[in-house]
Structure formats: C-alpha cells, structure tokens
C-alpha cells in the first residue's frame, strides 16, 4: 500500500488474525476500540475482519519492521454523507489503533493518520477524510487535531460502547484547505 519513513501500511493477510486477536483482547486497546466487554478471540477476528462482503480496506501498520497496529479505510456511503451534511464530495473514513502498547506516546499515530490522509488524497482523490472518535477519547482527538482534522459536529449517543451510548465527534480534514 504505502510507506513513509519507518512506517509501512500493508493490506491485511490471513496470518494477521493472530495479531488482531492479541490486540483486541487487550483491555487497554479495547477501552476505546470495540469495548472491554467485547474481546475478540481468533474465531471472532476471522468472522469480523475476514468477511468477503465488507468493502473496508483493512491494513496492518508496521513501524521499523514490527507489526504494531491496524487501520482500515472506506468510502463513505450516500446515506452517511447525507447524515453528516455532505453532498457530492468524495469522502473517506478511517478507523485505527496502535495495538502494541510499547509504541503508544511516540507520535506514531500522528504519523499514521497524516500519512493515510496523504494516501487517500493522492490515490483515492478524496475531497474529505472523516473520523468519529468518542468525545472521551482525548488522546485520539488530540492526535487527529495535530494531523489537521477539526471537530465539525457532535454526534450524540453515536456508538454503543461497554453498554452505554457514547457521544462522538465528527472530525474532518478537507483536502486543499
């Protein structure tokens, strides 16, 4: 897919299911991604991440040759674009996490998100990139703001997480601004 410096993003392989199961059974990762009440075993990873009808492009994040996280990107559908207040723009969304906690706090997330924005603008001709982090996920919101995304809309009770609906921010990056 693409590389930038010590960062490499490649498409998900079948053998990566073990990594995903490891990361998505870690309560610290699950605190903001999927929920601590929703751990993934190998069977659940295979069901959720290797579904053929899913149009998301699923990728593994490598840093300095080590597999450290996950990112997916997808074109936003017409219904969601309408909900968000967009028209005919080419809008992409991403979801990501660093699964290896030893790589947290090293600005790798910032490098990952900014590199994905560059990739989507150049290769997919995206006009906008959007993300919808939970409002309480301060670390993610700050990372996205460092990458040039801005909060544009509060999405009340957007995501069911650990038994409660959480508010999320719609954050966007407009290409060319």
TrEMBL record:
Gene Ontology molecular-function annotations: N-acyltransferase activity
GO biological process: response to antibiotic
Keywords of the record: Antibiotic resistance, Transferase
PROSITE patterns, alphabetized: GNAT
Boundaries of every N-acetyltransferase domain copy: 7-176
InterPro entries in the record: Acyl_CoA_acyltransferase (IPR016181), GNAT_dom (IPR000182)
Name of the protein: GNAT family N-acetyltransferase
Species name: Bacillus salacetis
Biological classification of the source: Bacteria, Bacillati, Bacillota, Bacilli, Bacillales
């Amino acid at each position: 897919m693409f590389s930038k410096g010590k960062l490499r993003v490649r498409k998900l392989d079948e053998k990566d299911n073990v990594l995903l199961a490891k990361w998505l059974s870690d309560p610290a990762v699950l605190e903001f991604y999927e929920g601590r009440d929703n751990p993934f075993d190998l069977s659940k990873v295979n069901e959720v991440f290797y579904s053929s009808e899913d149009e998301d492009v699923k990728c593994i994040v490598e840093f300095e040759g080590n597999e450290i996280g996950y990112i997916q990107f997808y074109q936003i559908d017409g219904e969601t674009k309408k909900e968000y207040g967009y028209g005919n723009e080419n809008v992409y969304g991403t979801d990501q996490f660093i699964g290896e906690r030893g790589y947290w706090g090293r600005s790798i997330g910032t490098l990952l998100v900014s590199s994905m924005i560059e990739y989507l603008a150049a290769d997919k001709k995206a006009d906008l990139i959007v993300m919808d982090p939970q409002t309480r996920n301060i670390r993610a919101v700050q990372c996205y703001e460092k990458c040039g995304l801005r909060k544009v809309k509060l999405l009340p009770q957007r995501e069911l997480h650990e038994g409660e609906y959480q508010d999320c921010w719609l954050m966007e990056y407009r290409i060319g601004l």
